[in-house]
Amino acid sequence: xxxxxxxxxxxxxxxxxxxxxxxxxDEADLYAAGLSSFASVQLMLALEEKFDVEFPENLLxxxxxxxxxxxxxxxxxxxxxxxxx
Amino acid sequence: MNMHxxxxxxxxxxxxxxxxVAKIAAVHADDVDARARFPEEAVEALRTERLLGAQxxxxxxxxxxxxxxxxxxxxxxxxACSAAAMVFAMHQIKASSLVSHGEGAPWxxxxxxxVAGEQLLLASATTEGGIGGNLRNSICAIEVAGDTCRxxxxxxxxxxxxxxxxxxITSRAHADAAASDxxxxxxxxxxxxxxxxHVWDTLGMxxxxxxxxxxxxxxxxxxxxxxxxxxxxxxxxxxxxxxxWSAVWYGIAADAFARAQAFVxxxxxxxxxxxxxxxxxxxxxxxxxxGVKASIVAALEKYAVAQGDEDKLSAMSFSVAMNNLKIxxxxxxxxxxxxxxLICGILGYKNGTPFSLGRHLRDAHxxxxxxxxxxxxxxxxxxxxxxxxxxxxxG
Lengths: 85, 395
Known about the structure:
Chain A is an all-alpha fold. Chain A is built from 3 helices and no strands. In chain A, helix 1 (3-14) crosses helix 2 and helix 1 (3-14) packs across helix 3. The longest helix of chain B is centred in the middle third of the chain and has 42 residues, at 229-270. Chain A binds chain B through residues 17-19, 31-38, 41, 44-45, 48, 55, 57-58, 60-63, and chain B through 136, 173, 177-181, 228, 230, 234, 310-311, 314-317, 379, 382-383, 385-388.
């Protein structure tokens, strides 16, 4: 499964969105879709657990969680850093 | 001040103007409180001194005041009349939404010029029946048809709604939008009707006249602010609210402290050989007051560094810092005023003495409730599940 697909699954299970995640494009604005700041933290915790990474301070902002594509990019970067280390 | 010094050369003049307003506000503060009436004399004085436009950019007819300068003005007025100071603070918080997010929009630029030119008073309608106090959610939705927008909202609180010249009101962005997908719209007085649903009869902050209303408005759709409310809330409203409110509360506590200190000094003059019993508590209250002041100044510096940088303003570390300021100042001012009450004794407890503190204490009790501290602590605790607190001293 690609990182984007995994992220999609986690958004579906932890994002508490009022819409079906399957209907959202990778670039769709998750905040407009109803992502709350509380749910974004839960999402972050679930991603940290799933990918065994830790979100550094510079990624703890709204932009990182603005879309499935943005989350996937952030996670990919963290996973790559993790593997390089 | 350091290199991020938020004040500039215009500060003393602004303060001088506000001191003249404060003088008038102080005369009427007890009556405003007793009758739970709007501080009209103080607001009239704010207009005379042209301070309602203080934050509007100079090229649009205002003073272009920084958040630090506005905070100083709130603290000055807070020492005279808490209700007038809170009205001023809430007006300036709304003005910050226009200044920070409306500059690129022709309608909002023209409106800012009107705010400064005509000294319009701005009110806020973010609370709604059924949302449980979370202003980042709306039930009502704005309806845009052609060039016109319409909105109906069960606004359980609109502070000084009856007295405002315009209301900035939140709603969902459209009929199908999620509860958190919100916009902020400016409605002018002749574009809405208000039907009173709740009367503001409270323990303190009585003069803010924060009645509830059923709001019904219709206006040109271009009056909707061009940025999502989520952005406005995160990038200007959070900091402006917590900093300006804290400045008002600081003002209330500072005036209580001044009364307590005067009480002890009078006692010391009567018997110079004896340290009055309250003297130690004055020292303790002084330390607490300095703590509140330092927290506000630190938050102002943090904002000065982050200002204009979307990433820094939307970072968790910034939200945590602003939330922490609100929690600390709202709790500490109560402790300070309570100390002052112990110092002044029955003369502090009694109304109508030079050392009366009842109004201060009652007004300050609102601080923990305007956005409940429990809600804020809840949000901060969520963020602290992932955000690691900066443990450096100066960073």
